[in-house]
Structures are given as structure tokens and as C-alpha cells.
Design goal:
flat, 1 helix, NAD(P)-bd_dom_sf, 30% helix
Amino acid sequence: MAARSVFRAALFRDRVALVTGGGTGIGTAIAAELLGL
């Protein structure tokens, strides 16, 4: 069973998100989650 996203589907539509610390830890998890939107 796949987990649901914590972000609304259209929350970042036509937007740019800058994730600092995307190489490790929670930054990586957030970047991966945003990539999947």
C-alpha cells in the first residue's frame, strides 16, 4: 500500500520549490516528495 502525499495535488503547480539540504536526511525526503507531485 503506497502512502499518500502530504501535499495537495495542485499546491505547487506552476511554482518552483527550492529545497536546501536535499542531499541527505529530511531534505532528500522532501525533494523526493515534491518531485513526485
